Amino acid sequence: MNKLPKFITFDAYGTLINFQLGKATLDVLGDRAKIIDTDKFLNEYHDARWEDIFKPYRSYEALLRRCFGNIARKYHIEFTEDDVDAMIAAIPTWGPFPDVPPVLRKLREYCKIVIISNTEDHIIERNIENIGVPFDNHISAQQARAYKPSPVVFNYTLKKLGCDKSEILHVAQGFEYDIMPAHDLGWKAVWINRYGIKGDTAYGPYDELTDLTGLPALLGI
Amino acid sequence: MSKLPKYITFDAYGTLLTWTLEHAVEQILGDRIKQIDWEAFQNEWHVARWNDILIEYRPYETMMRRCFGNMLRKYGVDFTEEDCDAMIANITNWEPFPDVPPVLRKLREYCKIVIISNSEDRFIEKNIEKIGVPFDDFVTAEQARAYKPAHKVFNYTLKKLGCDKSEIVHCAQGFEFDIIPAHELGWKAVWINRGGNPGDKAYGPYDELPDLTGLPGLLGI
Q: Is there a cis peptide before residue A149, judged by omega within 30 degrees of 0?
């Protein structure tokens, strides 16, 4: 890339923020998790969230509550609203991966940095505080009233930032949530493949990095 | 009132729109309702919601789902997330009281009309469609990140409208949610006492009407 983008947009959970919903869920369940196949439970919970984000928009908390409730019932786990509250309360406490703050501090000397996250404002604002680096803007599912990978979110972003897609570089760990829609919409993208999974160049071109460390160099900074 | 206000602010649920949540839940629970003291359930549920809005802000759907879930568990009623979905879906089906649309149409020829609701934007927008009269603005708990009776909501309203409290008349059916904080903050208020409840002049001065029909007359229109 020989030209710096005006905006670098980042997915938050899993890209900048260490997303630990599985751990938070198991912490809440405690001994109740012993009677279930936790890997299977968490996979089903993940799949349920993926399905729910395509339904008419509801707030992230509401989406998590209903997905968790459905799966917990399916596994015959007794739970209370306090359990669900505790699981959700963990989200705004999550902080950044260690490579993130120094790279963001460097990037923001050259470009505007923005978060695009499948969450709610009152939650992501706390996550941003935890990152400890100020962002120029943030876009949430709450604002767009849709969840990535919906193009509604990406098009809302262009409108909110008042820019063209050619001025943006989108950086994300989620392949289905971010890289695929970026491809569909013709956004430049960098895949942060933190977990060393297999990509698919059919959804390219995209650059690939294992974490954020190499991003300034990729941009010629 | 000798001088027309610049803004008339209205509470929504119970003031402009019929609150039929309990009736909806009767349909949703069906035979399950026979196993419980439904009167006691409704009273406790109301108190639970009141208590919940006074704690840390959570979105309306979250607050409603958790209060409903807590109550159903307490009363030993089996339920699914679909039951909660149906309860939530009912909110946007509420109809305006018959006196509301003609009065609003008249008032908006003279003043700006605004809703202040303990709800989420995506719900209140549908409620406004149901009323069938355009509003000049609306303020929600989602925007203010607090629920009435918190003063935060009223102060947020002044900031959003860019006006002084002396330019507003607030009309509401809820005494604790609306009339008491209006008194505390020195807002002019009209209590729409649809339920024929005893008021409390200690929280006056306020005007009192049984529905919206007399409001234009009260304002000298």
A: yes
Q: Which residues of B touch A120 (CB under 8 A)?
A: 59
Q: Is residue A1 part of a domain?
A: no
Give the residue on B whose Cα is nearest the Cα of A83.
Answer: B66
Q: pLDDT band at A3, cuts 50/70/90?
A: confident
- Residues A190 and A167 placed together within one structural domain of the fold: yes
Taking the CA of residue A2 and the nearest CA in chain B, the distance in Å comes to: 41
Domains within chain B, CATH numbers bracketed: 7-18+95-218 (3.40.50.1000), 21-91 (1.10.150)
Cβ-Cβ pairs closer than 8 A, A with B, add up to 50
Residue A200 is given by DSSP the state: -
CATH code assigned at A34: 1.10.150
Residues A129 and A158 sit within 8 Å (Cβ to Cβ): no
Residue with tokens 């009273």: B43
Same domain, residue pair A65 and A145: no
Query: What does the pLDDT profile of chain B (221 residues) look like in tens digits?
Result: 557 999 999 999 999 999 999 999 999 999 999 999 999 999 999 999 999 999 889 999 999 999 999 999 999 999 999 999 999 999 999 999 999 999 999 999 999 999 999 999 999 999 999 999 999 999 999 999 999 999 999 999 999 999 999 999 999 999 999 999 999 999 999 999 999 999 999 999 999 999 999 999 999 99
Establish whether this prediction's ipTM goes over 0.95. no
CB B15, CB B172: distance < 8 Å? yes
Question: How many angstroms separate the CA of residue A131 from the nearest CA in chain B?
Answer: 22
For residue B79, which residues of chain A lie inside 8 Å, CB to CB? Answer: none
pTM, two decimals, is 0.92
Q: Do A61 and B85 touch (CB under 8 A)?
A: no
Q: Mark out chain A residues that contact chain B at CB-CB < 8 A.
A: 57-59, 61-62, 65-66, 69-70, 73, 80-81, 84-85, 88, 120, 122, 145
The strand pair at A137-140 and A112-117 is best described as: parallel
Which of B57, B59, B81 has its CB closest to that of A66?
Answer: B81
Q: Which of A59, A73, A80 sits opposite B62 (nearest CB)?
A: A59
Give the domain CATH number at A171.
Answer: 3.40.50.1000
